[in-house]
Structures are given as structure tokens and as C-alpha cells.
Amino acid sequence: MNTHSPAEAEDQDEDSGGSDLHLSEPDNPLGRPMPGGGWSESITELRDAYVVPPVESSFVQAAGLLAGDGSYCPQGALWRKWRPLTTEPAMPEGELPVLKGKWLWGGVLWAHFGHFLAESTTRLWALDKLGEAEGILYIPKRPAVGEEVRGFQLDFIRQMGTDLPVKVASEPMRVEHLVVPGPGFGLGEIIAGTQSYRDAIHARYGSDIPAEGGPKIYISRSLLGVQRGGLVGEERLEELLTAEGYEIYHPQKFSMAEQVARYKAATHVIAAEGSALHLFAMVARPDQKVAVVLRRQSSASNYIEQHLASFGGSEPLPVQALRRIWMPEGTKAKRMGLGELDFPAVEKLLAEGGFVSGTAGWPDMRKVEVRRLLGKRAGNLRPMNQRKKAQGGAAED
């Protein structure tokens, strides 16, 4: 199952700062949702609600919920960091179809695997509080996707222990009874998850999937292709970790249930930083040792580490050991960068963390090897964050 579809998230927001006039008012839905509670753990019920999907494929979109009287329902917005990515839509015109019965508001449905996990599952904590209902209702992030529900999206929802139908509103509609939980998870401070969301994940997610597999696993990105960013030298890292007893695991080759089973069985997990770790975090435990091999400098990396720590109950080891980051010309999108591994530093950090023996003496890459790995793209890449000469670069030819 290829759950790692091309990235849809615009990097313009990746490390943006901002202000929130309502930051000190966690109960005010005009301010960002917070993990300590407030409107992020509230439930709002709307009668004869208007559901308005986006009409443009853009970063911030006019879309969301209006109450029966036409007033905006801010509790239904998608937030990222310090601002909402869905804003008050205009009242739809004309006669609208009516969705009968009670529905759970799921929010915005992302087709990108990591953003689905982080931003489309955030309201499922309310399943236990829903009672009898007709289904779960989303709007698409991309209008062109329409009403499509992808296999991995449905798999996750089913693994939350519900068989409720999932519907995507691709056109404006009215809903007889819409239950709107606050977002208990997301990108920003809310990445730690509210207590209600964490409790629901721990109690429900994958609870009927037994552990299966060996104790040591390396979660790889090497088969995803350099166009999605990655690690220069990851194949060599895999060879070195195989010698240390690790299974090289490519999650996109397996169903979500198989991934969950494998992650549950592991005692030592090393992973190239990426979306797969958001799924691992959902079933992580305090007794598991986790190391994250960073491939970029980005708030996205910090969010993955915070997700692991909050849900798994122990801090992951950040393996920050890059010689330099190679960026394609003409882009500042950090997800596109290729991190060049410093192998002696990687071995040292992993050994200090109790993941590898530290006795093998991992050799660094020579410049000719780096150029070979970069291949035809080398002429269109520029090095960034290069270490000082005194600290060394790739070994000379």
C-alpha cells in the first residue's frame, strides 16, 4: 500500500511565526486549539448546518461550517500553528441537498498521508461520545479530489473501532444534525494532543491488531525517490544497520494493519524522519527505544519528535548528523532537501543511545560517492548548512 503520496502541504507555512490575540483564552474558538483543553475538547452541536467545501486549491481556503442561522461556526475550522487554514465561507446560494440524521464532523480530508494523520483524524476522539449516528463527514482539501476516500484513510478510521460510513461533501449541503468536536490534535502546540484525543487513540487505535515481527527495525525512505527529499547515503546506512541486526522496513509496501503490527512488536526503532513516524507514534509505548535520523531543519521534524514523546511516553533520540543539505535550485521547500549523512557522527549518536554497538567504525562518504548518489541532479542542487572546514566535509577522493 503506497500511503506516501506526493506532498500537498505548502512549505510557505513551515516555519512561519505569528500572533494569536486569543492565545490566553483556550475556551475561545477564535484562538488556536491548545493541548491543555478548552475548545479543543468541546463538542458543539449544530442543527440544519451548512457545510461549505473549498472552491479553490490554495493554502488558506474559505470553507467550513455555518450554523442554521447563517452564522459562522469557528469550532469547525482547520488550524495549523498560529492561524486557521479554513476561514469563514460565504453563504451558499440556491436550494441545497440535505443530509438526514446525525453526523460527526471530521474536518478537512487530506490525501497526503502525514497530513491526513495529523490534521484529518483530530476529531475522532469524540466517537465514544457520539451515540447513534449516520456517519463521519469531511470536506476535501483539494476540490479536484471530490468525494474520493482513499484506502489508507478508511483503514485508519476502521482501526479506530468504528464502521460508520465516511462521506466527503464536494458541494455545499445542509446537515440535519452535525456534531462538531474540537480538534484534539494537529500541527502546532496541539501536536501533543489533548488528553481526550490521546485517551481515544490509546484505547481504540489498532487495539485488535496483534504485534508481529522482530525486535529491531529501521523505517526507511530510500524507495520513495529523491523527488520527495531524503537522505544521501541511506542505502549505505541500511547496510550498516542490517549488520547490527535491524530489519529494513519500507512501510509503503505494507497495509496499514501490517505496519501497526510491525511497529507494536519492535523494541528498538530507528527511522528516517518522515510521515511514517506519525503512524508509529499512534501505537508507541514507553518501553520502546526510538531514534529519528533527521534529514532537514524544519518545524515538521520537531512536530514528529513531540508527537512521539507525548503519545509514546518517552523522548526519542534525535540523530542530527548531516554534513550538509542539498537543495534543488529555485525552491525553499525544506521537504525537498537531501540531507548528506555524516556516518561517524550517526554511529556515535546511535551507540550512545544504545541502538548500535559502536565498534564497527562507520566510514564517511567520499566526495565521489556523494556525487554518484546525487546523480544527474547534482548540477541543479546547491549545498546548504555546510559545516566549517575544520569540522570536515565528505572525505577527499
UniProtKB/TrEMBL annotation:
Residues annotated as domain Glycosyltransferase 61 catalytic: 113-282
Q: Where is the composition biased (Acidic residues)?
A: 8-17
Q: Molecular function terms in GO for this entry? A: glycosyltransferase activity
- InterPro entries recorded: Glyco_transf_61_cat
Q: Where is this region: Disordered?
A: 1-38, 376-397
**Quick one: signal sequence residues?**
none
Q: What is this protein called?
A: DUF563 domain-containing protein
* Source organism: Pseudooceanicola pacificus
